[in-house]
Design a protein that fits this description.
This is Mor transcription activator domain-containing protein. InterPro entries: c-mor_Regulatory_Protein, Homeodomain-like_sf, YraL-like. This protein is mainly α. Helices cover about 55% and strands about 0% of the residues. It has five helices and no strands. About 5% of the residues are buried.
Length: about 90
């Protein structure tokens, strides 16, 4: 997250109004709900995990054991089972 000086981006009237409520600190202004990106959408990590999980499922269907998959992907047996049996 990048910090921006409010004086540089807000109209003077709004800036002075904000100073009446809050001075010398940081204010977080959240993104509107309808504009917010879902987890992993920006970094692409969600796609990576989906691709990895698809490979795990394909390998399991091809006959690779849960234990071998856990070892290969450095995950627990429980995590592999959750990936394989998710709906």
């Amino acid at each position: 997250m990048k910090y921006v000086n409010a004086k540089q981006i807000l109209p003077d009237k709004l800036f002075r109004e904000l100073q009446g409520y809050f001075q010398g600190g940081y204010i977080y202004i959240p993104i509107e709900q309808n504009r917010q990106k879902s987890w992993g959408e920006v970094s692409g990590y969600r796609r990576e995990l989906q691709k990895r999980n698809a490979q795990i499922t394909e390998n399991f269907k091809a006959g690779v054991s849960v234990e071998k998959l856990a070892e290969k992907y450095c995950l627990s047996v429980h995590a592999i089972r959750k990936i394989i049996y998710q709906k």
